Amino acid sequence: MSTSRVFELRTYQAAPGMGSRMHTRFRDHTLRIFRKHNMEPLAFFSPTDGANTEDTLIYLLGFESREAAEAAWTAFRADPEWQQVKAASEANGTVVEKTESVFLTAAPYSPMS
User: Fold this and answer.
1) Residue 1: is its pLDDT beyond 50?
2) So what's the pLDDT on residue 53?
3) pTM of the predicted model, to two decimals?
4) Pairing status of strand 96-104 against strand 40-45
5) Which of 55, 56, 99, 107 lies 20 to 30 A from 11 at CA?
6) Residues 6 or more apart from 17 whose CB is under 8 A from it?
7) Residue 29 pLDDT > 50, yes or no?
8) Has residue 1 been placed in a domain?
9) pLDDT surpasses 80 at 51
């Protein structure tokens, strides 16, 4: 079992016209629920180049290990509060259309290592 700190870089593409709703959900609910499940939000970004910049969210989470990340995501998805928030925010349609995830480890010379 690995105990090396890992980072997860996630990119969300909102459904057309749902970028504002996606950002509101993160700001008002998701961040707090992440922390409840030992997910460490490190940074959130909006791209400045390309199409649909207002509908794209890129963020970085930190975890104690890959196993901790998997356990945190399982707990997060099962959280009744998250399920309620997601359902309420999607009453008028899906908010996030596409999600990409990449797990990373810090290079030995990185300030984050």
Assistant:
1) no
2) 80
3) 0.89
4) unpaired
5) 107
6) 55
7) yes
8) no
9) no
Task: Give the structural domain span for 45.
Answer: 6-104
Q: How many CB atoms lie within 10 A of CB 15?
A: 16
Residue 57 lies in a domain: yes
Give the type of residue at 76. Answer: F
Q: Give me 49's structure tokens.
A: 């180049």
Alpha carbons 6 and 40: distance in angstroms, whole number: 11
Tokens (6 digits) for 55: 């509908």
Q: Which of 29, 32, 23 has its CA nearest to residue 56?
A: 23
- What is the CATH classification number for the domain harbouring 16? 3.30.70.100
In a domain, 112, yes or no: no
According to the model, what pLDDT value does residue 3 have?
52
Which regions of 32-84 does DSSP assign to beta strands (E)? 40-45, 56-63
Domains of the chain: total: 1
The half-sphere exposure of 35 on its side-chain side, counting CA atoms within 13 A, is: 8
SS3 63: strand
Residue 112 has pLDDT above 80, yes or no: no
Question: Looking at the domain assignment, is residue 47 inside a domain?
Answer: yes
